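User: Quick one: structure for sequence A, then sequence B.

Assistant: Sequence A:
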Amino acid sequence: MSKFTVDVQFIKESGWVGRKESIETWSAPTKEELFLKMLKTNNHIQKHFNAEEMNGDCYRFKDEDWKLQEEYDEWWRNLSEDEKEKIFIES
């Protein structure tokens, strides 16, 4: 069974400045499952957002892979509101 594998980078923000903190390789059975992993991970980070530190840390596709980002955005737009709400609660 093949897996979808992609490099992602962790962006660490301090104030208004963001810098690449690390690069990780993520895998999932499908592209959609990897998108779900990224969404849940970023949602979890945002739930612990510290306004005083203004840390908008997040994961992004490595080297700003715009094609993959567009696929991710399309996948997100196609989710129902119920699916989005469920994902947010779970993350």
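Sequence B:
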Amino acid sequence: MFFDFFEARLNDVPFYLLSCKGTLDCLDREHSILVPFPHDPSRIMDIKQFRFHKERLVDPLFFAIPESWNGLFATPSVERLIRQRGLRGFVFSDAEQDE
């Protein structure tokens, strides 16, 4: 697991915060569209199109990747579970969808 869950209560309603413990090296750099920093092409400034090595993703899973400091990713079954349980505070988009 790459995240710890911390419970917080507001008006006696539980909310959960995620704390990242580590990252998963699963970005398919060859098929993703990466934008390097101009002054250091070895570092990634932005990712325009994500592609993942699916065989590295064990479902269900929340994960972060080392190339993106602000991304939280989840496998499709995580989205289904969250929607089925009516959990609030999540917005989902397909990271691999073409722009």
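The mean pLDDT is 89. The longest strand covers residues 40-49.

User: Thanks, that's what I needed.
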